[in-house]
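Issue 218. Parser rejects a valid record. Input:
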Amino acid sequence: MKRFKAIREKVETANLEEIRVGYDQLGKAVEAMPADLIGPQMRPQWFEVAMLLRNDVTEGREVNSMRDADRVFALTRQHVDQMKAQFPLPMSHDEMQMPAMANMDAPPEVTEQLSGFVAPYLTLSTALAADDLNAAKQAVEPLHQRLAGLPQIVSDAKTVEMWSKEKRDLSEIVASLLKADDLAALRGAFALLSEQMLSLQRMFGLPTDQSLYELHCPMAFEGRGASWLQSDDTVRNPYYGASMLRCADRVRKIGSQGEGE
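Output the parser choked on:
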């Protein structure tokens, strides 16, 4: 999806004006999609995704800070993921990391590099749920160190190519976490990190001995909603902490290779 790719590039360069233009163009692309070309059984799903994307466009056209832009983009990525999973649209993996390529057999080098992210992620989530700013900041450093210590994998394998792209995205998100100086900023970046972790889970599976659960809070970020991962099903909302610790409308156990259980 070229419009999504354009927005992603502008988010990476922190160009607010171009991000707003990108969302305006995305809105036009969504409106131009002829619903009558979609089979009647799939139209309800399309109308749902189109509504979510229109909401993203409404917010994206008015973002006034990179914190807001990062938050809206995380949701847009989630909604494009949903669209890709439901509709066999002809998009290249360069334009979007395709859920259709999920559950790939990752070579040992990729699996080894993916290991070591779950534990510090869960520590960060727990700290945010406890409203503990210092603990949350400390939890970011192991993520940073893990990424900084990963060597480049020399391979022409498609899986390695995709992991390299995802790793760059992950590095940018962790950089945002390192810059965050309050809980609000940390939570905004954590939403991006959570979407990235879920994307990695769908593509490769996250190497871990722990069970993983996907949870979703419908109230986060002024009702836009956000997801996260936990190692158990007792809701500890990292986006609200003590004020709404048990807020979640979805708790789903997922398999180690990205399959729902």
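Fixed in the parser; the record now loads. Confidence is low (pLDDT under 50) at residues 89-102, 256-261.
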